[in-house]
TrEMBL record:
<protein>
    <submittedName>
        <fullName>Cadmium-translocating P-type ATPase</fullName>
    </submittedName>
</protein>
<comment type="similarity">
    <text>Belongs to the cation transport ATPase (P-type) (TC 3.A.3) family. Type IB subfamily.</text>
</comment>
Length: 286
C-alpha cells in the first residue's frame, strides 16, 4: 500500500529533523496562522556565557566568591543561564560547595543554601545601575543575592542562531503575520535579539503564565498559534498553543513532553519546513 499523506509527511518531517508526535499534529501544523517564538534557546543558541561579573558597591565579596556561590546554587538547574554560571566558575577553577534546599521558580531563577548562606540567582529585583549597564550592552542581567541582599549582577550573552532571521522571514511568509517574541528576559536584551531577527512585536519580562495568557488571547480571537520554545518556562504556552514545537537539544524535559513536535536537528529552519510539509499533505488529504 502507498503511505497515507500525513504518515509520509511525518516520515518526511523526520528526515528534516523534526519529530512530529502524531498524524493529528502533522495535520494541525499547516493550519497555524500566528507564531510566537521564545528567545533564550530558541532564537539564540542557548549556549550562553558569562561576559562580566559586576560586584555591587558595598559588597564585601570578590568576583570569584560571588561566582562560586552562584554556581553552587545553579548546579542542579537545567536552565541555559544556570549552565553558563556553572561553566564560568569552572573556567576560573573555583571550588563549588554543595547546595542544600535547592528550589527553582521557572522564569525567575533559583535559590539554595550554600555554606549556610541563602543564595538567590535570577531575574533582577529592581533595575539598578549595574543592571541597566549590562542590559545597555545587550546582555541578560542576572542578579546574585546573598542572605536577601543583592551582591552582584552577571552580564550574560548568547549568540543568535545562524538561521534565525531566515526562519522568521519564512514563517512570516507562510502565515501572513510576523511572529511575536515572547520572553522572560528584560526588554533591552529582547529588543536587541528581535532587531537582529527582523521581529518587531516584542513582549518582554513575561512569566511562564504570561506567555500562556498571550497565546490564549490569540486563540480566543480565533487565531491558531504555533509556539516554539525550549524551557520549563515555555511549557504553559506550549500547552495553550494550537500547536507547540520544542527545541530538542537544549530543551527541558517538560518542554519536550508538552510540545506536539520536537526539533531534533538543532536548526530553526526545520520549523517553517514542517509547516510547509503539513500544508502539502493537507492538500493531498482533502
Ligand atoms: P526566556 O523566556 O528568554 O527563555 P526565562 O523565562 O527562562 O527566559 O528566564 C527569564 C529570566 O529569569 C532570565 O532572563 C533570568 O533573569 C531569570 N532566570 C530564570 N531562570 C534562571 C536561572 N536558572 N538562573 C539565572 N536566572 C534565571
Ligand atoms: Mg527559552
Amino acid at each position: 500500500a502507498t503511505m497515507p499523506p500525513l504518515l509520509s509527511a511525518i516520515a518526511n518531517a523526520g528526515r528534516h529533523g523534526v519529530l512530529v508526535k502524531s498524524c493529528v499534529v502533522m495535520e494541525r501544523l499547516g493550519a497555524v496562522d500566528r507564531v510566537a517564538l521564545d528567545k533564550t534557546g530558541t532564537l539564540t543558541e542557548g549556549a550562553p556565557r558569562v561576559a562580566e561579573v559586576r560586584v555591587l558597591p558595598g559588597s564585601p565579596l570578590t568576583e570569584d566568591q560571588v561566582l562560586a556561590l552562584a554556581a553552587a546554587a545553579e548546579l542542579p538547574s537545567e536552565h541555559p543561564l544556570a549552565r553558563a554560571v556553572v561553566a564560568a566558575a569552572r573556567e576560573r577553577g573555583l571550588p563549588l560547595a554543595g547546595a542544600e534546599e535547592f528550589s527553582s521558580a521557572p522564569g525567575r531563577g533559583v535559590r539554595a543554601l550554600v555554606d549556610g548562606r541563602k543564595v538567590e540567582v535570577g531575574r533582577p529585583g529592581e533595575a539598578s545601575g549595574a543592571v541597566r549597564e549590562a542590559e545597555a550592552a545587550g546582555r541578560t542581567a542576572v542578579e546574585v543575592a546573598v542572605d536577601g541582599v543583592p551582591v552582584a549582577v552577571l552580564g550574560i550573552t548568547d549568540r543568535l542562531r545562524e538561521g534565525a532571521p531566515a526562519a522568521v522571514a519564512a514563517l512570516t511568509r507562510l502565515t501572513g503575520t510576523a511572529p511575536t517574541l515572547l520572553t522572560g528576559d528584560g526588554e533591552p536584551a529582547a529588543r536587541s535579539v528581535a532587531a537582529e531577527t527582523g521581529i518587531t512585536d516584542v513582549r518582554a519580562g513575561l512569566l511562564p503564565e504570561d506567555k500562556a495568557a498571550a497565546v490564549q488571547a490569540w486563540e480566543r480571537e480565533g487565531r491558531r498559534t504555533l509556539v516554539v520554545g525550549d524551557g520549563v518556562n515555555d511549557a504553559p504556552a506550549l500547552a495553550a498553543a494550537h500547536t507547540g514545537i520544542a527545541m530538542g537539544r537544549a530543551g527541558s524535559d517538560l518542554a519536550l513532553e508538552t510540545a506536539d513536535a520536537v526539533v531534533v536537528r538543532d536548526e530553526l529552519a526545520t520549523v517553517p519546513a514542517v509547516v510547509a510539509l503539513s500544508r502539502r499533505a493537507r492538500r493531498l488529504v482533502t
